[in-house]
């Protein structure tokens, strides 16, 4: 799809096992030093879904476009941060990706809001995430949706020849 694709509507749904190939392609195409702490994926590619990354952990955004009907525009991964009962009231975002052709059209914000709604539906009253300190666009989006910086792990990662902070953000899901 070209950068001039017009989005007419965006809907969010749970991921399905049949989405694996499209999600893997999206994940690889959106890899960036802005947010990745792992090396760029190289063939042969690992499966997108595995025992730790199950379809039920993901919400996907589908966009109705003028180019080809409906296309997968992004995903967000929402999971409990730990298996502990004392932490069951929290959900954590552990991945958000938006296709290049869909950026700037509100897909990331739509996914973020859907994740908060899904976390509430699951009984959570708090949501957290981690973001690299130099990822200014993501940090701005999260802040605009009520996430606050709750901690900074200074120099937590050594990426591409420099130390990068790991920023911990969170917010309440109370109405």
Summarize the structure in words:
This protein is an alpha+beta fold and 175 residues long. The chain has helices spanning 20-29, 107-121, 136-144, and strands at residues 7-14, 58-65, 69-79, 90-98, 126-132, 148-159, 162-172. Strands 1-2-3-4-5-7-6 form a 7-stranded mixed beta sheet, with helices on both faces. β6 (148-159) and β7 (162-172) form a beta hairpin.
Give the strand line-up of the largest sheet.
Answer: 1-2-3-4-5-7-6
* Helix coverage percent: 10-25%
The SSE string, one letter per element, is: EHEEEHEHEE
Specify the biggest β-sheet: 7 strands, mixed
Number of helices: 3
Shape: globular
**Category by helix and strand content:** alpha+beta
Q: Oligomer, anyone? A: single chain
Radius of gyration: 16 Å
Low-confidence stretches: none
Please give the number of β-strands.
7
For the record, give the distance between the C-alpha atoms at the N and C termini, rounded to a whole number.
38 Å
**Beta-strand percentage range:** 35-45%
| Average residue pLDDT | 94
Topology:
Elements (H helix, E strand, L loop, with lengths): L6 E8 L5 H10 L28 E8 L3 E11 L10 E9 L8 H15 L4 E7 L3 H9 L3 E12 L2 E11 L3
Parallel strand pairs: 4-5
Antiparallel strand pairs: 1-2, 2-3, 3-4, 5-7, 6-7
């Amino acid at each position: 799809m070209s950068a001039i694709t017009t989005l007419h509507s965006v809907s969010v749904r749970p991921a399905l096992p049949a989405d694996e190939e499209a999600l893997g392609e999206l994940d690889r195409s959106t890899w960036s030093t802005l947010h990745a702490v792992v090396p760029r994926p190289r063939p042969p590619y690992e499966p997108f879904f595995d025992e730790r990354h199950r379809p039920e952990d993901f919400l996907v955004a589908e966009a109705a476009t003028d180019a080809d009907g409906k296309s997968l525009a992004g995903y967000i991964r929402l999971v409990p941060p730990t298996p502990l009962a004392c932490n069951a009231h929290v959900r954590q975002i552990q991945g958000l990706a938006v296709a290049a052709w869909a950026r700037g059209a509100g897909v990331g914000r739509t996914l973020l809001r859907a994740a908060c709604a899904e976390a509430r539906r699951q009984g959570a009253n708090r949501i957290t995430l981690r973001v690299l300190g130099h990822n200014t666009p993501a940090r701005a989006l999260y802040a605009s949706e009520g996430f606050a910086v709750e901690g900074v792990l200074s120099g937590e990662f050594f990426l591409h020849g420099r130390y990068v902070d790991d920023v911990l953000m969170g917010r309440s899901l109370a109405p």
